[in-house]
Amino acid sequence: MQDVGRVFLVGAGPGDPELLTIKALRCLEGAEVVVYDRLVSEEILALAPAGAARIYVGKQPGHHPVPQTQINELLVRLAESGRRVVRLKGGDPFIFGRGSEEAATLSARGIACDVIPGITSAQGCAAQAGVPLTHRGLATGVRYLTGHCREDQDLDLDWDGLADPETTLVVYMGRAHIGQIVEELMARGLPADTPTLAVNNGTTPRERRLRTGLAALPEAVRTADFEGPVLFIIGRVAALGAALGVGEDGEESRMASRA
């Protein structure tokens, strides 16, 4: 009887292959099968062994060609075939990556699963732009939130709690709903001139940045015509990147700025 394989849920980080952890790299180099998402860069995928099978299961907003239940079952079948499976996800597998759903399915089927954390998109994009997510006197906390609900339902978030000027907000997958997000935050009292930063294709050679005030953000994003993932950082700290002079060598020339 063939031994059951093992699944590794690996965080690929925000895009730059040099931001992979050593453990993630070693795991990827030992993979027999790589099941990967849309936001995993070609440079990172190339680190897998030449003989490893590569299976794409990426999703886009409103377009999920491989439903999550099928991805779960795919991981089970691959592991039951005795292979070493790396489930490669952008960022961290347990932050808006549905990695916990996959881990729960594997556990229920008696399949060993390891989780290798990755640098989140929030951390990677903020660091690249020189934005501290917390800063004494400006932000005492940070909250990660999704700007996209399943089945395209309306956003139903804790708007009163989110509209805290001393909290940094990091919005994933929020481009389609950024107008509603801004409207709701301002309706709860967050100032219209609150600094914001939008990062497109963060930590990659295609990175673009846009800095503006909160009220101007939706229109600025629309006219910027970004392609690829966009991460939003909302809060006082978003103004610090340029002031601290971090990430300006070659990056600021690609920055789209709006007053």
Task: List strands and helices in order, with pairings.
Elements: E1 6-11, H1 22-29, E2 33-36, H2 42-45, E3 53-56, H3 68-80, E4 84-89, H4 99-108, E5 113-116, H5 121-128, E6 141-146, H6 159-162, E7 167-172, H7 178-187, E8 195-200, E9 208-213, H8 217-224, E10 230-234, H9 240-244
Parallel strand pairs: 1-4, 1-5, 2-3, 2-4, 6-7
Antiparallel strand pairs: 7-10, 8-9, 8-10
Helix pairs in contact: 3-4
Outline of the structure:
With 259 residues, this protein is of the alpha/beta class. The chain contains 9 helices and 10 strands.
Fold-level CATH name of the largest domain: Methyltransferase, Cobalt-precorrin-4 Transmethylase, Domain 2
Low-confidence regions: 249-259
The overall pLDDT, averaged over residues, is: 90
**Main CATH class of the largest domain:** Alpha Beta
- How large is the count of helical segments? 9
CATH superfamily of the largest domain: Tetrapyrrole methylase, C-terminal domain
Report, as a whole number of angstroms, the end-to-end distance. 66 Å
- Share of residues in strands: 15-25%
Q: Give the strand order, joined by hyphens, for the main sheet.
A: 3-2-4-1-5
Describe this structure in words.
Strands 3-2-4-1-5 form a five-stranded parallel sheet, with helices on both faces. A five-stranded mixed sheet has the order 6-7-10-8-9, with helices on both faces. The protein starts with 5 loop residues before the first strand and ends in a 15-residue tail after the last helix. It is built from nine helices and ten strands. With 259 residues, it is an alpha/beta fold. It has helices at 22-29, 42-45, 68-80, 99-108, 121-128, 159-162, 178-187, 217-224, 240-244; strands spanning 6-11, 33-36, 53-56, 84-89, 113-116, 141-146, 167-172, 195-200, 208-213, 230-234. Helix 3 (68-80) packs across helix 4. It has two domains: 6-116, Cobalt-precorrin-4 Transmethylase, domain 1 (3-Layer(aba) Sandwich); 121-254, Methyltransferase, Cobalt-precorrin-4 Transmethylase, Domain 2, CATH 3.30.950. Helix content is 27%, strand content 20%. Mean pLDDT is 90; it is low at 249-259. A hairpin with a 7-residue loop joins strand 8 (195-200) and strand 9 (208-213).
